[in-house]
Amino acid sequence: MDKLPKIALPAIFALIVLVIIFSKSTVTIGSGQAGVLYRTFGDGVVTDEPPMGEGFHIVAPWNKVFVYEVRQQEVFEKMNVLSSNGLDIKLDASAWFQPKFNELGKLHQEKGEDYVQRVLLPTIRSAARSVVGRYTPEQLYSSKRDAIQAEIFEETKKIVEDEYIQLNEILVRDVTLPPTIKEAIERKLRQEQESLEYEFRLVTAKKEAEKVTIEAQGKADANRILSASLTDKILQDKGIDATLKLSESPNTKVIVVGGGESGLPLILGNN
Predict the structure, then answer these.
(1) Are residues 112 and 58 in the same domain?
(2) Is 66 within 8 Å of 35 (Cβ atoms)?
């Protein structure tokens, strides 16, 4: 019984050591993550092998594993930039990105775990200042927001692709102009809209007047043609036809007493 404690203590100590070693030798990579292996007694960061994927891994206890999020992520950035005429513009943008999976080791080795602050955000700021500086406040307020969004994306992507970052999208969420400039632009847009509306009314009125003129001219031309075609002989024949039709009516009594100046019969009564 006296020897049991002497045997048990080393065994307990050995068990504790084994548990520590085992815990140091296992790594679990979560969903949407990947691990970069660092060999302490080797060449350091492993860049010539694919990173560790999701799941359970056993590594030497003296090595380290750095875990990265490899799913698409979003980062927000608010910045002050200058327009082409030097006015201060507030730009609210976000970026969708993810590290390139097969180059994760190089990203860790060259940029580190805070690569978003070191590489991505400074590049977005630089691209935004460059792009917004090409446009006036009026263009930023109205028609050019989609254009600057696309240009910021292209300029940022061109740089970060060489930095092992995959840029998926840049979203310009808000462009804030100085209040006085915004009011001036809105006033100008209202005036332009009113001017366009006035021009539309003028064009509509002109077209309506042209329509009335054309209709009147058509009627005048028709009457002139009709007058030119009605000779005395045609009028006399039409009068005779009308008189004959009237005399054939059962409800009409016609007394013909002679001819008028035109040679047509005279109707004295119809009762």
Answers:
(1) no
(2) yes
